Amino acid sequence: MEEEVKNKPIVIYGGPLFDGKGNVYKEGAIYVSEEKIKFVGNEEDVFSRIPKNTDMEFYDTQGKVIFPGLINLHHHFYSALSKGLSPIGQVTNFYERLSNFWWKLDKALDGETIQLSALITLLDCIKSGVTTVFDHHASPLNVKGSLENIASVVKRAGIQAALCYEVSDRDGNDVFTRGLEENLNFVESHKDDENIRGILGLHANFTLSEDSLKEISCHFDPEVGIHIHCGEDVIDAEYCKDLGYEGPVDRLNYYNLLSRKSILAHGIHLSRKELKILEKAKAIIVHNPESNMNNNVGRLDIPLPENVSVGLGTDGMSSNMLQTFRSAYLLHRQAGVDEKTIFKNLPDYLFKNNSLFASQFFPGKPGILEQGSNADISVFNYIPVTPFHSGNLYGHIIFGMYNAQASMVMTKGQIIYNDGAFLTLDEELIRSEAKKASERLWKKYVNQ
Known about the structure:
alpha/beta, Urease, subunit C, domain 1, TIM Barrel, 2 domains, 14 helices, globular
C-alpha cells in the first residue's frame, strides 16, 4: 500500500493580509503545515516562528492581498447555463419570472447538464476566491441522484459545499415525494463528510401546501436545518397571511422548521413579529442584493430592527462575493442609507456571519485565518497603491477589489488554482462540453 504523499509546509507572504476577523497586516504571512494554519500575522513575526531547517515551500504574492477563502451562503449551481436565455412568455412580476423562466429551465435539466452547470459554477467560484458554498438545487425531471451528481464534482474541485434539493408542490405529489427522499438520503449519506453536507431544501412557502409542510416537519432535524427562499416577494407573505399566519416565518415556526442551522434566503417581506421569531430561533437571513434588484422584489433593511443574523449570498447571479458586497453597498446607498450604517453591518454579513454559520456545518473555521484553522486561503490579483489597513479595507473591496479575480486559491493546504490554471479541474474540457450541452438544454427548454 502506497503511503499518502503530504504537501510540504508552505509560507505565503509578500502582501497585505486580512484575517477575516477585522485585522489587517500591512506585510502579512501565513505558515501552513498539515492542512492547517500554524502561524499568521506580520511577515517578520511569522518567519521568526518557523522551526529552523524546515523543508518547506515559499509563495511570494508580490504585493497581492491575502484573504481567507470566501463563503457564499446562497447559490444556484444549476443556473450556470442560463446566461442569455430568454423567458417563454411575458414577465411582469416575480411569479411570471419563475413560471416562465426558472421553472422551465429546471425541467429541462438532465444528469449531464446538472453536472456541467455545477462544474462551470465551480470554476467561477474558485476564480472568485470562494471555497465554501451553500447551494440550492432543482431538477424536477431528474431528481434521484442529482445531489450526489453535484457532490462528485464539488469533491473533485477541492472546495466544500452544503447541498440540498428544493422540495416543492409545483410539479405534483410524486415529484414532491422524490425531492424529499433525495434530500433525506443525501443528508444521511454525508452526515460524517467534512467537505460535503446536506440540508433539507424547500423552495418557498407559497409552493408548499399545509399537508406538505406537515410531512416535511415529520422529518425535520434541527441539527440539519432547512434552506428555503423566504419572504423574497410579497406573494410569499400574502400566501401565508391568506392561510391565517403572520407571514412566511410564522408559518415555518408553526411547523417547528426553524433552528440555528436554518437558512432563509432574502427575508425581505417579514414583519417585526417574525423577525423576533428568527432572533429567538437563531436562524439566519441571507441577503442577495443583485437578485433582489434584478427581480424588483424590494430591499432588505439595514440594519434589521431586531437582532437577527444576516449573511450574504449571490442567489446564482454570479459567484463573485466581493462584487456582491459592492452591489449591496450601492443598493443601500441609493436607498439613502448612510455609509456609517452600511459599513457597520455589511462587513459582518460577508465575513463574520457567513463564517459563524458555515462553522456549524464544516470544521476548521471556514472564512477565518488564525492558528489551527483550515488553510483555506485566497490570494487576490489586487495590489493596493494607496494605504491598505483595517480602517479602509471595505472601501478597497468596494472601489478596487470588487472585480479582482483570485491569482491563487488553497483549500486545506492544497493549491487548487494558481496563476490562471486549475489544478483539480480541466477548464478547457469543461467549457467545451458545457457549450455543447447548453445548446441541447436550450432546445429542451424551448420545446417543452
